[in-house]
Amino acid sequence: MTSRITLDRYVYEDIYPAFKATTDEKEITANINRTFLNFLAERNLVVNPHRPTVVADIGGGPCDTLVMYLNGVISPQGFIVRATDYLPAYADARHGEALRVLATAQSKNTIKLNDFAVQAGDAFDGGLLDLLSGPADGTKMRSAFDIVFASHMMYHAESSSDVQRFLADVANHLLAPGGICVMYHVALTPRTFQEFRARFGSQAGASTDSDTGAVTIDDPPPQIAAACKALGLPLYQMDFVTNSRFGSLGGDEWGAFRDPGSYDALAVSNPGAYEDLKRLYFVVQRAPLEFAADHSATGLTAFIDEIRPVIEANHGALPLTERMQVCSRADASPLLGEAIPGALAAASNWR
To answer: How far apart are CA 178 and CA 11, in angstroms?
Structure first.
């Protein structure tokens, strides 16, 4: 049975699966990531053929995306994974969903997973090493990570200083000398996902009860680039486009989207449109009642009026302009710096 939308607050885990179900974002980034990492592995960079590859997943939710990212990556000795997320439902050290997902991947040999641990916490607090150290690790994870993934989570940094603190934490405490941090975020481009989130979602923090932090960093890629420059970290970038797809929506459905009082009836009469409604709420991450009560240019009615023609003009899809950003330690070898642009070029042609 589909989960119902909570009207008086935004519940991420009830909304996000609808977005994930019809976007090609995960498939495309997984293919890009696989091509990129294998280019480096074939040159004996990042992935060491003689020991397990140590991987951190920061803000990765239940780690299902991480499994996609690592599936097909050349690592003869397998992977050691440490993961963290803000939500305990995903990353609780004993009961988080990430444990189940990683255990399933291990048992089914989806990826060669030697060892894993997860822990919930705030990735922007400056304590990443503690969050990414398992119960038996002690200090051995310091500067031990070959690959650090930080995808689609920088939006919730409270400020640009948090972005810089995060990247300093990664570079100084997590990355091995030959390691890399791989980040995927949507960029602020007119008439795309992040522009709508920036204009309509960034108002949420002060006015609604949400279990997802307010969207305070509207355009993460420039913030990441500025932080890397300030820290002296080499940064490499590649742009690509993905889509969030919607079903066939007519005037009745768009009309129902404007009124939270009609949502329960819509769930019964048109379950497909109800899932599309969730996809719209994933953009803004606001509580429906608060959003509808906002009659300004940032409210629900204005949002529906503006996003509908964009989705219709793109044949039922909302585009996401994305940027892959890769940084290394300041003292990374020149060989790694020379190889990454070629790896990005190969990844851009993964098809």
So the answer is: 39
Q: Which two tokens stand for residue 235?
A: 């940064």
**Chain segment 86-136, per-residue pLDDT in tens:** 999 999 999 999 999 999 999 999 999 999 999 999 999 999 999 999 989
| DSSP result, 47-62 | S-TTSPEEEEEES-TT
Residue 322 identity (one-letter amino acid): E
163, 157 in Cβ contact below 8 A?
Answer: yes
Residue 301 reports pLDDT greater than 60: yes
Q: CA 57, 17, 324 angle in degrees (round to 5)?
A: 45
The secondary element (H helix, E strand) that includes residue 140 is none
Between the alpha carbon of residue 177 and those of residues 104, 142, 234, the distances in Å are 31, 11, 13
d(CA 83, CA 62): 9
Q: Is the model's pLDDT at 206 over the cut of 60?
A: no
How much is the CA Rg of the chain, to the nearest whole Å? 20
DSSP letters spanning 181-196: EEEEEE---TTSHHHH
Nearest to 240 by CA among 285, 163, 187: 187
Structure tokens at 236: 């490499």
Taking the C-alpha atoms of residue 145 and residue 121, their distance in angstroms, rounded to an integer, is 19
Bridge-partner residues for 185, per DSSP? 323
* Nearest one of 10, 14, 4, 27 to 240, comparing CA atoms: 27
For domain 24-186+215-240+321-345, the CATH class is alpha beta
Alpha-carbon distance of 84 to 127, in angstroms, equals 11
Q: Phi then psi for 42, rounded to 5 degrees?
A: -65, -15
Among 140-149, 191-200, 215-224, the range scoring the smallest mean pLDDT is 215-224
Q: What is the pTM of this model?
A: 0.86
Where does 25-79 have alpha helices with state H?
25-41, 64-70
Report residue 306 CA to chain centroid gap: 25
> Could you give the CA distance from residue 45 to residue 51 in angstroms, rounded to a whole number?
13
The domain segmentation of the chain, as residue ranges, is: 24-186+215-240+321-345
Cβ neighbours of 232 (radius 10 Å): 10
